[in-house]
């Protein structure tokens, strides 16, 4: 397959063409030519040509951007066992629409991804897809928090990293052993900072808003105490830890200090924690019930600052799909989570365009997660393997129920005009365009 991408600005610090407008020719998945354009030529409308046919054309003056393919480090597609919520096929379609060429898939399925057979099943379901799937294996057997899973065996059969996903490891001794175990093969443990006993019974962030609404609160301590414990265990083991879904100013500062100590710690934030606060729950809308919970405006601004100064490394969508009736019930009984993977970029850019540059957004979506999880990355240059996301920082995009790719119904951003647009992705020698 031959693809020509004309008049596109490169955002890739590895490339000699970074921040230059170029024409790119891709043949059978490899960049065979890349040519810088003069100023006069660069003013013409960008376009994409596949097999000699123009398949996309921008407007005059519109800027087409290209970066290395974006990576989602924490997403759940629910297969096997919970296909009524999402399948691997529908999930990967949502990822492609959202500009993600690579997805780290959570193991909270039935059965859980706790053995090489389930690893092989999951990876097999994605063969031939434009999106590359990377399986996360469980830390504990069946994600039950009782004993360690066979992580070495899973690693040998394709597991990228290890986590119990939506069930953070509560037993300190097991967490200690896990951090020590993965050192044998340079592995990474992912952990969501939630102390389950402290959070038990809570429905939202504990504070003035929960008090006014008469809702049981989840104390900030449920996040910070777990994070403190895991930082201490990391310091003791000198292993590698990724904290996903940090949601508070205190957590940002704790990770900032840990990084200054040169601990091997990284972290990610969700699009919705950047965009929303606990005030969204004034309507008692269960669409905004998530874990960790939405917090205050001060916390939200601290997360943005952490993303700006590099304390927060990357974006994790925490794509957690549910069917309609899992959310449409009394708040107490509604399921947690949002399924926002296919508009994650739009949420982030719409929220942060006045705070961060599009170059920084590209770093947290593409460059940082690839380095953290050892995903292969070629520079956007002649001879490089093309794994690319094509997008625009201008204009607006509105996701509708009719246009969405995910099977999930729990996306509160449906129908809202958000900044920016994902044009498509090129990966695994395939071109996928949003139309």
* Spans of at least 5 consecutive residues with low confidence: none
**Major β-sheet, in short?**
9 strands, mixed
| Rg, Cα atoms, Å | 21 Å
Q: How many E-type strands?
A: 19
So how many helices? Answer: 14
Question: What is this structure's SSE topology?
Answer:
Blueprint: E1 2-11, E2 21-27, E3 30-36, H1 39-42, E4 47-50, E5 53-57, E6 64-68, E7 70-75, H2 88-97, E8 100-105, H3 116-125, E9 132-137, H4 151-156, E10 161-162, H5 172-182, E11 189-191, H6 196-199, E12 204-205, H7 208-213, E13 217-218, H8 221-237, E14 241-244, H9 249-260, E15 265-269, H10 271-275, H11 297-309, E16 314-315, H12 324-327, H13 344-352, H14 358-372, E17 388-398, E18 417-427, E19 430-433
Parallel strand pairs: 1-6, 7-8, 8-9, 9-10, 11-14, 12-13, 14-15, 15-16
Antiparallel strand pairs: 1-2, 1-4, 2-3, 4-5, 6-17, 17-18, 18-19
List the defining traits of the structure above.
435 residues; alpha/beta; Urease, subunit C, domain 1; TIM Barrel; 2 domains; four-stranded parallel β-sheet; 14 helices; 29% helix; globular
Characterization of this structure:
The chain has 2 domains: 2-66 and 380-433, Urease, subunit C, domain 1; 68-372, Metal-dependent hydrolases (TIM Barrel), CATH 3.20.20. The strands form 4 sheets. Strands 1, 2, 3, 4, 5, 6, 17, 18 and 19 form a 9-stranded mixed sheet that branches. Strands 7-8-9-10 form a 4-stranded parallel sheet. The mean pLDDT is 96. By secondary structure, it is α/β, with parallel strands linked by helices. It has helices at residues 39-42, 88-97, 116-125, 151-156, 172-182, 196-199, 208-213, 221-237, 249-260, 271-275, 297-309, 324-327, 344-352, 358-372; strands at 2-11, 21-27, 30-36, 47-50, 53-57, 64-68, 70-75, 100-105, 132-137, 161-162, 189-191, 204-205, 217-218, 241-244, 265-269, 314-315, 388-398, 417-427, 430-433. It contains 14 helices and 19 strands.
């Amino acid at each position: 397959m031959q693809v020509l991408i004309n008049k596109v600005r490169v955002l890739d610090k590895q490339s000699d063409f970074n921040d230059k407008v170029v024409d790119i020719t891709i043949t059978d998945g490899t960049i065979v030519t890349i040519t810088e354009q003069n100023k006069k030529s660069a003013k013409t409308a960008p376009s994409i040509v596949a097999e000699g046919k123009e398949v996309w054309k921008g407007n005059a003056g519109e800027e087409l951007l290209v970066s290395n393919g974006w990576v989602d480090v924490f997403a759940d597609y629910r297969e096997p066992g919970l296909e009524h919520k999402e399948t691997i096929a529908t999930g990967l379609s949502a990822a492609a629409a959202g500009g993600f060429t690579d997805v780290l898939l959570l193991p909270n399925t039935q059965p859980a991804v706790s053995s090489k057979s389930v690893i092989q099943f999951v990876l097999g379901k994605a063969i031939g897809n434009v999106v590359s799937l990377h399986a996360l294996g469980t830390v504990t057997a069946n994600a039950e928090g009782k004993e360690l899973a066979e992580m070495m065996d899973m690693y040998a059969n394709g597991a990228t990293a290890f986590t119990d996903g939506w069930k953070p490891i509560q037993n300190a001794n097991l967490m200690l052993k896990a951090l020590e175990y993965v050192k044998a093969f340079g592995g990474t443990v992912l952990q969501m900072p939630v102390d389950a006993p402290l959070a038990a019974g809570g429905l939202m962030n504990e504070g003035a808003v929960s008090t006014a609404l008469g809702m049981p609160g989840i104390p900030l301590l449920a996040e910070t105490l777990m994070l403190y414990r895991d930082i201490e265990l990391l310091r003791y083991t000198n292993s590698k830890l990724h904290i996903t879904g940090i949601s508070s100013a205190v957590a940002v500062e704790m990770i900032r200090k840990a990084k200054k100590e040169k601990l091997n710690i990284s972290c990610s934030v969700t699009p919705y924690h950047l965009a929303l606060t606990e005030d969204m729950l004034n309507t008692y809308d269960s669409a905004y019930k998530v874990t960790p919970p939405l917090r205050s405006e001060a916390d939200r601004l601290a997360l943005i600052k952490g993303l700006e100064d590099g304390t927060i490394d990357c974006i994790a969508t925490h794509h957690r799909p549910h069917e309609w009736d899992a959310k449409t019930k009394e708040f107490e009984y509604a399921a947690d989570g949002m399924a926002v993977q296919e508009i994650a970029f739009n949420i982030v850019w719409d929220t942060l365009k006045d705070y961060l540059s599009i170059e920084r957004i590209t770093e947290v979506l593409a460059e940082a997660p690839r380095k953290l999880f050892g995903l292969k990355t070629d520079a956007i240059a002649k001879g490089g393997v093309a794994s690319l996301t094509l997008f625009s920082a201008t204009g607006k995009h509105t996701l509708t129920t009719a246009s969405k790719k995910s099977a999930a119904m729990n996306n509160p951003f449906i129908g809202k005009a958000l900044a920016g647009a994902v044009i498509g992705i090129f990966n695994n020698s395939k071109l996928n365009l949003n139309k």
